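G., before I forget:
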Amino acid sequence: MTSVLEIRDLHASAHGKPILKGLSLVIRQGEVHALMGPNGSGKSTLSYVIAGHPGYAVTKGDILLDGKSILTLSPDERAKAGLFLAFQHPVEIPGVNIGSFLFTLFKNKYPKGSAVTYQKELQDILKRLGLTTQFTERALNAGLSGGEKKRAEVLQMLLLKPALAVLDETDSGLDIDSLKIVSEAVNSLRSPMFSALVITHYNRILEFLKPDRVHVLLDGKIAHSGDATLPAELEKKGYRWLKEEL
Amino acid sequence: MNTDVAINVGYTEKYGFHDEEKAVFRTPKGLSEDVVRQISAQKSEPAWMLDFRLKALKAFLNKPLPGWGGDLSAIDFDNITYYFKSNDKTAHSWDQVPEQIKNTFEKLGIPEAERKFLGGVGAQYESETVYHKLREDLAKQGVVFLDTDTALKEHPEIFRKYFASVVPHDDNKFAALNTAMWSGGSFIYIPPGVKVDVPLQAYFRINAKNVGQFERTLIIVDKDASVTYIEGCTAPVYSTDSLHAAVVELIALPGSKVRYVTIQNWSSNVYNLVTKRAVAHENALVEWIDGNLGSKLTMKYPAVILQGENARADILSIAYAGKGQHQDAGGKITHLAKNTQSRIISKSISKDGGRTSYRGLLKVKKGCTGVKSTVQCDALMLDDKSRSDTYPTMDIDEEQSTIAHEATVGRIGDDQIFYLMSRGMPESEALALIVLGFISEFTKELPMEYAVELNKLIRLEMEGSIG
């Protein structure tokens, strides 16, 4: 299987401070990988660097999407290349209606897509997420609760059907029912056309998602990788033993 | 995509065209008693109006330029043509409008808008109204929608009763100038109980160079009647400056509702100095919806005097200042009666060194208990070169009133841009979306056609901003 995401010896810094220090990772077509690790280990930085946040500088290494380097691409070009980042803290855009925003995204992605197709698609997605049309009349993230913001992220992801999704702590702030709904929505995308990197602190979402690989990020590097049984082990033992291993 | 093409039409291409200057009559440049007499004679006005104009001219000459607001020092009052007539009479059928002027308004989409959704249309070109039409059923109900000059002739009693009753001839320097030089504008009278369900619209166009446009609008809405009036303004781009000094007086009699919607999109060489004021009697509602784009300097503070109990006022405005532009705008509310309510929402955007100022006045007279007022002004600056200031004045003489004031000044966050770009939007589109969200409280009050047009204009302004 060909790799969708390949990260090679990635070094990145913010405000001159190195955060990622030689991270390598390969996600193949159809795979879901989980990324865990203590606070401050660089997980969110990795998600921002993949998406092209201008506040982070890549000092060494490369990121390839479908075999092509994306480092010189702007965030919108990366999105067009098939990348989607579900933000840990979705940004509030006051006054922008979710519905019209989604339609803009849809038209950007499918210039020939009709309003009828869009409506059908949207209604289907809303239903899967346990939302109603009323939700789309609210402002984009502004005034939404933490859980609603996370659902709005997943809603966008389901509409855009990315080739690679990075889900940055999408599970945090969700109650058990919401977590189940969101997990099922992610699972509904699973196919050879969809891969994901799921950043999380908790095993619960991974029990739903059943990742192919689980990685632990420590101090800007992958310190350990394992299969779906690793998170349970980490929950018992914490991260300290891995640090000692390093 | 086709929509993008429409969006990319620049101001210059869409509004900046100009026609050959063809005057049937024009006064010599500069202002003098003689110029005032010539204007009045051209219009065959009654003697009282000439006297009133002359009184206003004296007031104008005696008043210094305001020392606050924007820089007015570059206005050369001697190099302005105060009256410029391009046609002989107002047409009431589109076919009668002179070809050249007709083409202008067709380019601006006026006849199309009339057919689609308006109850009446007035179009003013330079100093005179060139076209005026009111839907027949409205005329039958006694609605009067005329250019102000014709109204003076056809409805002299009501005209004289209300003219300059809200904005006196010596109210401020530019209101005095307007009173001396006024020509054209809209006159509206809505009889008691008549609810006009479609907007009436006027469109003002300055075409010639160095011409002053001084339209005078007078709106009287009788008891329990209601109306929406919309006004649009444009001018071509010239290297020398034009002056637009309008006066709008609005009288909302008991129980009436008036909504006055303006989208001004002047070229960047127009001084736009407008006095807009309303009186609201008991249980009346006055809404100023005021959008200001373009111009070199705009000084405009729509005002409402809440004179009767339970009267309400709503002033909703946006201002956009780009390079070399200063928008000094805001709102004024005077609470003179018990249980009156007001709300001012002002949104401003500055970019490329543009400057916006919010200037507001809120007054509550002693004894006016139960007053409620909210003022909210938000400024958005798109870069470090731009500037925004807030000058709120509050003069509250009654303790038993509820006053809330909130002001914010912000910049577009990099995180907002990044978030939207990560969804596949180019930077300029992300920027435009954030700005449109910022002014959405305003846009949602506009008729659809205007909201769409305003959104296009904002997108257009944002496209130039990515370097």
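Chain A has a mean pLDDT of 94. Residues 3-245 of chain A form a domain with the Rossmann fold fold (CATH 3.40.50.300).

More on Monday.
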